[in-house]
């Protein structure tokens, strides 16, 4: 019955709620197995990493819709986003990258910001030892006409490849390629956010933190909260 806390964000205001340790632990395990089983269901019959990623991308686009204007922005846990069936750009990316990772394809998301002018949420998945880029909210898969995924470093070095996929798309009036330039050097987090939802990996992560085997910057990268509201992860 040791008291713990859980966080929930509603319309960008975060609140903490007390919860017994046993309930927090059971909820953690329940979400883990639910996420694992959903990833298996979505990718059933799919054999390659490339097809798994594309299948999960399409499923996320169908299943997680933009937040309706009359409903609050709620952020508590990735699984709850799936149950609600709607979310912000970063929450869509969270669902996509979490299910991809559960399906055996390492994935994470990041935010490209331009001061206070705008932001763009981008997702990355490792397919055939190459990090490919996706934009779930805008439905963009960065690949050539033959379906070959562009590697992130290719896109950073050749902005015209970004234009070929994104076209004239602009977010907050800012051209798409301008956001990509804000990523700078592409870095993979020390621990993927989705791995923190998995019991054994989470135990290993927590142990390394307590033994100071992770640098502070790595720990922050792995535990970065969602920009939507800052709910529990």
Protein traits:
C8orf32 fold, globular, 233 residues, 42% helix, 11 strands, 22% strand, alpha+beta, 4-stranded antiparallel β-sheet
Please render the helix and strand layout as text.
Elements: E1 3-10, E2 13-20, H1 21-42, H2 49-63, E3 65-66, E4 74-75, H3 78-84, E5 86-87, H4 89-102, E6 107-114, E7 118-127, E8 130-135, E9 140-141, H5 152-157, H6 159-166, E10 170-171, E11 174-175, H7 176-181, H8 199-210, H9 216-222
Parallel strand pairs: 3-5
Antiparallel strand pairs: 1-2, 1-4, 6-7, 7-8, 8-9, 10-11
Helix pairs in contact: 1-4, 2-4, 3-4
The shape, in one word, is: globular
Low-confidence stretches: 216-225
Spatial gap, N to C terminus: 21 Å
Radius of gyration: 18 Å
CATH topology: C8orf32 fold
Strand fraction: 15-25%
The overall average pLDDT, rounded, is 84
Helix and strand run: EEHHEEHEHEEEEHHEEHHH
| Main beta sheet strand tally, sense and closure | 4 strands, antiparallel
Provide the domain count. 1
Indicate the CATH architecture: Roll
Structural class: alpha+beta
Number of helices: 9
What's the CATH first level?
A: Alpha Beta
Helix fraction, binned, reads: 40-55%
Biggest sheet: strand arrangement: 6-7-8-9
In short:
The protein is an alpha+beta fold. It has helices spanning 21-42, 49-63, 78-84, 89-102, 152-157, 159-166, 176-181, 199-210, 216-222, and strands at 3-10, 13-20, 65-66, 74-75, 86-87, 107-114, 118-127, 130-135, 140-141, 170-171, 174-175. Helices cover 42% and strands 22% of the residues.
